[in-house]
Write a structure and sequence with these properties.
The complex is a heterotrimer of chains A (171), B (184) and C (168).
Chain A lengths: L3 H11 L4 E5 L2 E6 L4 H10 L7 E9 L7 E9 L4 E9 L5 E3 L8 H12 L2 E3 L35 H7 L6
Parallel strand pairs in A: 2-5, 6-7
Antiparallel strand pairs in A: 1-2, 3-4, 4-5
Chain B lengths: L1 H6 L4 H16 L3 E2 L6 H9 L22 E5 L7 H10 L5 E5 H6 L20 E3 L6 H16 L17 H7 L8
Parallel strand pairs in B: 1-2, 2-3, 3-4
Helix pairs in contact in B: 2-6, 3-6
Chain C lengths: L1 H18 L23 E3 L14 H5 L5 E7 L11 E9 L8 H5 L5 E3 L6 E2 L6 E2 L1 H4 L12 H6 L12
Antiparallel strand pairs in C: 1-4, 2-3, 3-6
Classes of the chains: A alpha/beta (171), B alpha/beta (184), C alpha+beta (168).
Chain lengths: 171, 184, 168
């Protein structure tokens, strides 16, 4: 069984540029975009590590921070009963991350969702399209600067105005 | 459809005919399966033996829009579902009615955000809105009975001529708003 | 062969058993099944025993509402002829029933137990405009009695919280 100290030592030995942190008891690695695929492949294929299961892949928007976006990947090693999180910073002006689809096929839809919600482009992805929102949707709804699509609640003082402007369906 | 065009202006004949036709329409109004979220559970409960909508001739929940008269939109309609909803509505034969069941289908309810259509009346014309989150089966049956009442008052040759989703029906609006006397 | 035939009659036995039982169906528009004591249906604005409105226009219910379905405009009480105890009353009190999700947070937030979710559930409308309930429709008439401790609290035997809840 692998323990956390050994894992930390092995990661820092193999990838000196990776920043090691903690995420609610699990190891969190902050990694540059260029090393992401290499690190994930190493974690997956190294016999003692065995991080073969991708739990989830999602995006985070830290509006006002540099880099603005972050892609978070959670991997699990079932034989070692360990989890690990990979944090990849993504700047706003060049929101691209190399895809993990070739290592973990399950990343396909999750990368599509992250693209749909945050507009992060996964280079090398086999079919990067919107998955949840309609195809003609403008913008990326989970970005913090995206408007909420809020409709004012109708009461007697504003219902005339709301219903006059609402696009009701015709027969 | 065909009947309205052929009937023309026949005075008392159409009046009697109207009664017969509307009686037939109200007593065999087959709903279409359109359960989208939690309201569908209450819709199923309304169909089950405790409440039993077949007492009103609605035992057949048709999965095909071609055989349905009434669309009960039960649940929140996401933006991606809206074109599907409209397409199924277009495939239903005339005469057709729509009940927006629950808060989310009626006006978006608590989901006041980008993902959910703020009321299905943006997509299809709605005849009866049933409030509740979700409504009890009785509340849905009450909505259906209100729809029956509305259909009984319809003129067959004027159907689809004046169907707009926002229509303040004086008698019914009076029933709901201002029916209680204001305090002096 | 015989076994298969007997299985057929075994199934029919269940059918025959239910043939002579009273059906479970509730004939809804004529017979109404009583709702549970804690059921949350249409709101009512209650009164004190002396006829004053309980609502003091504090807008806490509007703040607690997750769907923003309540709209309150407070107004100053006329000292000669007050509508509610204290300085203010609700000049406008509206609930959009199509937005309301009947969660009961307004009931919990109300410091005077003015708003209570009662047992009426038949809320169907032909158009959106009639789904907005104004104060005239929500407020109970003086002759209909006055609001007591909400049934939920009464049933659980819990003390009123906050204790400032007033009963005149």
């Amino acid at each position: 069984m692998l323990d956390r100290k050994t894992l930390e030592a092995r990661v820092s030995q193999r990838f000196p540029s990776v920043v090691i942190g903690d995420e609610s008891g699990d190891l969190a690695l902050t990694v540059g975009r260029m090393h992401l695929v290499e690190l994930a492949a190493w974690l997956r294929d190294e016999p003692e590590l065995n991080f073969k299961f991708l739990n989830n892949l999602c995006g985070v928007d830290f509006l006002g921070r540099e880099p603005r976006f972050e892609v978070v990947v959670h991997l699990t090693s079932i034989p070692n009963q360990m989890r690990i999180a990979l944090h990849v910073g993504v700047p706003e002006n060049d929101p691209t991350v190399p895809t993990l689809t070739r290592l973990f096929p399950t990343a396909n839809y999750q990368e599509r969702e992250t693209y749909d919600m945050f507009g992060i482009i996964f280079t090398g992805h086999p079919g990067l399209e919107r998955i949840l929102m309609p195809e003609d949707w403008m913008g990326y709804p989970q970005r913090k600067d995206h408007p909420l699509g809020y409709e004012e609640v109708a009461f007697t003082h504003n219902e005339d105005w709301i219903y006059a402007n609402k696009p009701f369906a015709k027969e | 459809m065909g009947l309205e065009e052929k009937a023309g202006d026949l005075g008392i004949v159409t009046t009697t005919l109207e009664g017969v036709v509307n009686w037939g329409r109200t007593n065999a109004m087959w709903p279409m399966l359109f359960g989208l979220a939690c309201c569908a559970i209450e819709m199923m409960a309304a169909q089950a033996s405790n409440y039993d909508m077949s007492r009103f001739g609605m035992e057949l929940m048709r999965a095909s829009p071609r055989q349905a008269d009434l669309m009960i939109v039960a649940g929140r309609v996401s933006r991606k579902m809206a074109p599907v909803l409209r397409r199924l509505y277009d495939q239903m034969p005339e005469p057709k009615w729509v009940i927006a069941m629950g808060d989310c289908a009626s006006c978006g309810g608590v989901y006041n955000n980008y993902a959910v259509v703020q009321g299905v009346d943006e997509v299809v014309p709605v005849d009866v809105y049933v409030a509740g989150c979700p409504p009890r089966p009785e509340a849905l049956i009450d909505g259906i009975l209100q729809l029956h009442q509305k259909v009984r008052g319809e003129k067959i040759d004027q159907r689809s001529a004046d169907r707009s989703p926002i229509r303040v029906d004086e008698t019914v609006a009076g029933h709901h708003r201002g029916a209680l006397k204001p305090l002096g | 062969m015989l076994k298969g035939t007997m299985a057929y009659f075994k199934g029919l036995k269940t059918t025959a058993k239910y043939l002579f039982k009273k059906p479970v169906t509730i004939q809804y528009p004529d017979v109404k099944r009583p709702v549970r004591e804690r059921f949350r249906g249409r709101h009512e604005l209650k009164r004190f025993a002396n006829g004053l409105e309980r609502c003091i226009g504090c807008s806490l219910c509007a703040a607690a509402c997750p769907a923003d379905a309540i709209y309150v405009v407070p107004g100053q009480n006329d000292p000669a002829k007050p509508l509610s105890p204290g300085e203010r009353h609700a000049a406008v009190y509206e609930i959009n029933m199509l937005r309301c999700i009947f969660c009961g947070y307004c009931e919990d937030a109300c410091p005077t137990n003015a708003i209570v979710l009662e047992h009426q559930y038949e809320l169907s409308f032909y158009d959106r405009r009639s789904s907005i309930y104004t104060k005239d429709m929500l407020l109970v008439q003086p002759e209909d009695g006055y609001g007591e401790v909400p049934p939920v609290l009464e049933q659980t035997g819990r003390q009123l919280n906050p204790p400032a809840q007033i009963d005149l």
